[in-house]
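Aim 2 progress. For AraC family transcriptional regulator, the working sequence is reproduced below.
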Amino acid sequence: MPGTDLLKARYVTHRFSRHVHDGYAIGLIVSGVEEFDYRGTLHRAAAGELVLVNPDAVHTGHAGVPGGWAYRMLYPSIDALAGIAAELGAPFGTPHFPEQVVRDEQVAALLRRAHEAAERGDALAASTLSRTMFARLLSRHAAPRPAAVLPAEGRRAVRAALDVLHESLVDPPTLEGLAQAVGARPFALLRAFKAVTGLPPHAYLTSLRVRQARRLLQSGVRPARVAAEVGFTDQAHLSRHFKRIVGVPPAAYQRAAGA
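Predicted structure tokens for this construct:
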């Protein structure tokens, strides 16, 4: 499906730092056990189970057993899943997965077959199987997105702060400067920001930088230039944060993207 990254990997010692995705992270544990913190709750996913991570939900990832874990992941955009949900007649809005680890043998088999078809370069089979898999996943495991509980003023300040950070990757403001820009007090903004995103502004900025770095790498920009354009001090700084969030170094990601 357009705009959907795929990852096949086995990790033993690697640990994903706390981060968010702008889309979904949906995967099948092939072997071993992955443990991950999701919004403050520790989950364990074993072989045959599905991992379901919602957009902008803070999570980590590390081995749950000494031998690590292997999985096949898909990262569809919000628009992609919302479009399929609309075709199924679901209420308009962003689909939400209330459970982060589920066991569904039919969906798992479809995900694996779609992933393997993409790996072979069989675009027709991959797109057909992935669309079928997502439709079944949504119909069985999705629910309406829960309403925000933060006061309207706090949500407004956070939305404005996010806009500022998106526009200030290379030269971001201090917390005080960010609060002043959105008309809030620093500690009040910090509390509201963490309540909405799960991360403090500086950590969320790192996720934004990595997100933009992925787009630039996909377009063929060299990693050293990418580092400068998204605000990392050098290529090593980019590589360190990129691997902690994406799971592979920038150059390897760029090669896999065919850029």
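The chain has a mean pLDDT of 93. This observation will guide construct design in the next reporting period.
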